[in-house]
Write a structure and sequence with these properties.
- The protein is mostly beta strands and about 180 residues long.
- The chain has no helices and 16 strands.
- The strands form 4 sheets. Strands 9, 10, 11, 12 and 13 form a 5-stranded antiparallel β-sheet that branches.
- A hairpin with a 6-residue loop joins strand 7 and strand 8.
Length: about 180
């Protein structure tokens, strides 16, 4: 599941019967197909929520409510790191179901932007350069809920929705550079 092509490699999630669902990489040959690493269980129900190509690497959003994280891998165990830890999130904060946007996808230094939200509460935007120290929450360029991210070169289009006190909904489309 979660098949993600990155260059000439395919990243995917499979259950090898030993460690449960884990990330694998393949160059298309039996000898070039292997489990990347064993990612520890992140809660009572571990799940890979989505995956996306991130430059020459793959990013996985995973976890269960209250224990979500973001992992990035170059296809090796040493190059597989968690860039967002569950403790980086506030109580009740969850990764959005929306896929992240990759800014500058075809450059040597892409940036991933993604969102989180507290149920019926605040929304947050995050950016990551693919390292733990380079992953941080940033000022929200739109109001309230973030519905969609799309990338266009080095900018993200962010669709946000705000519900006013009177119950009306306002929709905002913002072009954002990830800063």
């Amino acid at each position: 599941t979660k098949l993600t092509a990155v260059g000439a490699r395919l990243f995917f999630v499979a259950d090898d019967g030993i460690a449960g669902q884990q990330p694998f990489v393949s160059d298309g040959s039996p000898a070039g197909t292997r489990r990347i690493t064993t990612i520890p269980n992140t809660g009572p129900v571990r799940g890979y929520l989505r995956a996306t190509a991130f430059g020459s690497r793959c990013a996985w959003f995973m976890g269960s409510p209250g224990a979500q994280s973001v992992w990035i891998s170059d296809g090796t165990a040493a190059g597989t790191v968690r860039v967002l830890e569950p403790e980086d999130l506030e109580e009740g904060e969850e990764l959005l179901g929306t896929a992240p946007a990759i800014l500058g996808a075809n450059t040597p230094a892409p940036v991933m932007v993604f969102g989180t939200q507290i149920l019926r509460g605040a929304a947050f935007l995050w950016r990551s350069d693919g390292t733990r120290s380079g992953t941080s929450r940033v000022t929200l360029p739109v109001r309230s809920w973030v519905n969609t991210f799309t990338a266009l070169g080095d900018r993200a289009r962010v669709l946000g929705i705000e519900q006013t006190a009177g119950g009306a909904f306002w929709t905002y489309l913002t072009v954002w550079d990830g800063i």
